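Input chain follows. Return structure tokens only.
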Amino acid sequence: MDSYEDPGTPHPSARGTQAIGRAAALLRALAHDNRNGLRLAQLAPKLGLERPTAYRILRRLDLGELVYDLGLLADSGNHLRDLCRGSVERLAIESGDTSFLIAPRGSDCICLDRAEGTYPIKVLTLDPGQRRPTGIGAGSIALLALLSPQESARVLEQNRQRLATLGENDVEALIACVERARADGYAIKQPPDVPEVLSLSIALHDAAGAPALALSIASLATRITSRLPTLVALLRDEVRSLRPLLGPAGARSVDRIDRAGPQRVTAQTPASASRKRRMTSS
């Protein structure tokens, strides 16, 4: 599982590997905080590096057109965004709210795509390309629910420190949230820093049986809870439409989702959201 902690101080014979590891960790840190960017004084402590060392790595990386080109290559090799674009757009149109496509990346989850609905209050909890530690958001909870209880708990425990820095201080509560998602066939989650918002998500396996993607809808809590059966049905329809693209394991995911239903809502739903404003949170 990847993270952006400093890989440590290796034997002198491994200096080349250390440099590569530090450069990769730096890129992951920048990707995680891509909305606002990072100052060198913020970046160095995240990597466990002295500022001069972090500065030298940045100078040598030449973060410009090469990184952009590599991003294009990675995108062309992974067609999930293109394959799922229609589903993401339909969810936004039919729900009126913001929809997301989420995919696992090691111990993180990344937002591959986003579409905005017509409802005037926009819940923009993630930007396309933004990474967060697995355990933040309904999409990552839905993906964890496709793992065994032991494996999902291990991922959350591994991310404990990073989750705490983002307001998720109770890993045991997250494990319980994953268990509910596993039983219900969908995940519902309240951001720790935006209590009037809920996100709803369903995830799918790939052909090899590994968690591949999650489709999510985010809106005011009252809009989610008042339309829960309808929104779950919308997500199921789009997940079902993706089944031929993901192979037999994806079909098994849909079969399990079909057997489950919107049985209960477990997140708090304060109604303090009548104001017309544009919400953003990381």
